[in-house]
Amino acid sequence: MIMSIRPWVVVEPPDDRGLRRITVGGVEVGSAWSPSELRTVLGRLGYPKDMDLTDRSSLCWRGGDSDVWPDRAWRRRSVMVLMVVGLLVSMVLNVVIGWPDASGALTFAQRITGVLFVLSGVVLGAAAVAAVDYWGRRQFKASGAVVLLGAIVALATDGLLLLLWFEEREYTRHLLVYLPAVCWSLWALCLLVRQKSWQGVPQPKRFAAGVVATALLTAVSLAYSTMYQPAAAPMHFTLNAEFGKAWKDENLPFVHVPLTLRMKNTGGIPVYIINDLYTVRGRVALYSPEEKGLMTEWRQSVGKQGAREGEAELYVDQLRYFTVSSGRFYESGNSLDVGQEHSLKRVFQLPEDVGYDTVSVEVQISYMRKDRGKLDVEEFRSPHPSWNERDRRYYCEPAVCGGQLIYRGRVRHNNNLINVTRKPRYVTAVWSPGGRFISSISSFPFNFSGVGDYGEERRELERYGAARARVDSEISVAELLQSAGV
Fold first, then answer.
1. Which of 21, 214, 330, 404 lies in disulfide reach of 386, CB 3.0 to 4.6 Å?
2. Which residues are listed as membrane-spanning (predicted)?
3. CA nearest 252: which of 365, 352, 117?
4. What pLDDT, on the 0 to 100 scale, is given for residue 229?
């Protein structure tokens, strides 16, 4: 075989990873980490497998002879594996967080948050593939820049999760993922910056400007949808309670009084009805033409059984109230969409000589906005009677608690960032015909003692947009009896 004066094969100096490029006639034909890989490349070109690598008539060595192979394969592969694993873990976490919001959130801002997290997962997946090339033979010039972008995205998303966690500092199993992920992303970013991984990009300044702009837009969008909860669509309800025309029972000395209850969502957001109660009460009072003074008569009424401390009336003393009828008019956990109306008609009975001077009805509802959270309706709809001894969690002696129904179900925030940085939250509703009407949202277990973190309850009620609405109406018994012809 005739050789020219200039060697056919040139082995270039090792780069910062120990990889040496191989050229033949000025054309790159491959690269090698070790002498065995060099023989493999040359073998594909027709060179004998046992050729003498020290023969300078066949090979030209630059930047070191055949003994200079600085690659530390175990170290390089360990870094590559650690980088790929970290990127893949962050990718899975971001997709798991973002997909529920991207596919099922009720508001546009929440869907955008979900889409951003899913897209960041796609970027992290691409960065994991690029990491294999970057710590390999670097056939793709921009692989280092893509890995750097992935590390920046991982630090931004995992850092946001950690910041949200610090707001409440509650243990959640997701903390075991994004806390190590933040440490990993800091290590990865420092390593990539030290290696100047962006140098393979044709226009690194434009790439850097694009990364910064994207990061700022993403941060603003996430901050808007996560930290800021707009109140541009306030809740409005129309509640109405009306007594109808009474009629006399021909067989019994009773008067039947019809009652119509109506509820309509006149706001711009659908809601869950957590609890509802209507109570009909009869009022008994001691009338006197003597003017004792409003304050005197009010002080004498306060403390009487069934009296209302917030009511005072001249010529009327010792006000007392008795529950005539009480019940529900909407199933717990059901939703009420925008513009939807619900009505209910009931009939209660009064003796002809009942002795009440007035009859009043009070309607109360508690609700939660559906754009803030999703209630586990199937779980919430199953009531727990307080007198059921087999259900020890909700049992309370009837002598202490009387009879109550407890409704409790898991609620998930419509921004999944909240769910993965907080303990589970539960909606609790307590109802009894005697007027027990409690609605709360909290993380602590249910108990009858009332012991809990009321500060947390207030925060959660505000976070999920929970509130109450009520209406009452009153009519004189004389008017009812007159309408019945008594």
1. 404
2. 79-100, 112-132, 144-165, 177-195, 207-227
3. 352
4. 47
Domain residue limits at 436 = 373-464
| Contact present, 256 and 347 (Cβ < 8 Å) | yes
Instruction: For residue 438, report the phi and psi dihedrals to the nearest 5 degrees.
Output: -130, 135
Banded pLDDT at 345 (limits 50, 70, 90):
very high
pLDDT band at residue 256 under the 50/70/90 scheme: very high
Say yes or no: 362 and 478 in one domain: yes
d(CA 107, CA 114): 11
Q: 38-52, 59-73, 203-217, 412-426: lowest mean pLDDT where? A: 203-217
Residue 430's closest CA among 386, 379, 377? 386
Please indicate, yes or no, whether residues 327 and 340 belong to a single structural domain of this protein: yes
Per-residue confidence (pLDDT) for residue 231, from 0 to 100: 46
486 — pLDDT class (breaks 50, 70, 90): low
**Same structural domain for residues 142 and 209?**
yes
Question: Which residue would you say has higher pLDDT here, 426 or 111?
Answer: 426
